[in-house]
Design goal:
Radius of gyration: 16 Å
Strand content: 35-45%
Distance between the termini: 26 Å
Number of helices: 2
Strand order of the largest sheet: 1-2-10-7-12-5
Order of helices and strands: EEEEHEEEEEEEEEH
Number of strands: 13
Largest sheet: 6 strands, antiparallel
Shape: globular
């Protein structure tokens, strides 16, 4: 597995090694040993699986406050998404900056989104399934969000339509108004 750094410190693209033959293919999606070798000693405790029926569905931008913050390892197992991480660590030189890429069943890439970052994705096909591992259990009392179209962040979503949103995501605040207890350089 290749661990590729992005412009945001701590956010990685993971490209698995795919072994194929006349029967199909096989790949490892996670290996504790490979993560340790890459300097990423993570212990995932929960895996989530979502289905979105329609192109243009947007989930996010989500995060959990510390001490229940989550690192996420995200992959798309059916269809395709545009996956985004936003740096929300106060004092970070990249605070408010975002990184996005297409994750699809075809390209098999994964995105590692560390604590201190908000995460969201937009489906770019119909019938999309996304799976992601987290290193902390879901904590409703620590669950927070940022509005998907915050002009301060300026995410360039790939589909220029009004997205399909949950009620929670429709009412999410701007980055400047959201509760956030992450500070750059502090261990989360």
């Amino acid at each position: 597995m290749n661990f590729l750094e992005t412009k945001l410190s701590g956010v990685y693209i993971l490209e698995p090694t795919v072994h194929g033959d006349h029967r199909g293919w096989f790949m490892e999606t996670h290996s504790n040993e490979q993560f340790k070798e890459a300097g990423l000693g993570l212990a995932f405790v929960q895996e989530n699986h979502s289905f979105s029926a329609s192109k243009g569905t947007l989930r996010g931008l989500h995060y959990q406050l510390s001490p229940k913050a989550q690192t996420k390892l995200v992959r798309c197992t059916k269809g395709a998404i545009y996956d985004v991480a936003v740096d929300i660590r106060k004092g970070s030189p990249t605070f408010g900056d975002w990184f996005g890429l297409e994750l699809s069943a075809e390209n098999k890439k994964q995105l590692l989104v560390p604590k201190g970052f908000a995460h969201g994705f937009m489906t770019i096909t119909d019938d999309v399934e996304v799976q992601y591992k987290v290193d902390e259990l879901y904590s409703p009392e620590n669950d927070r969000g940022i509005i998907w179209n915050d002009p301060e962040i300026g995410i360039e979503w790939p589909i220029d339509i009004k997205p399909i949103l949950s009620q929670k995501d429709e009412k999410a605040p701007l980055l400047e108004d959201t509760e956030n207890n992450f500070a750059f350089g502090e261990e989360v």
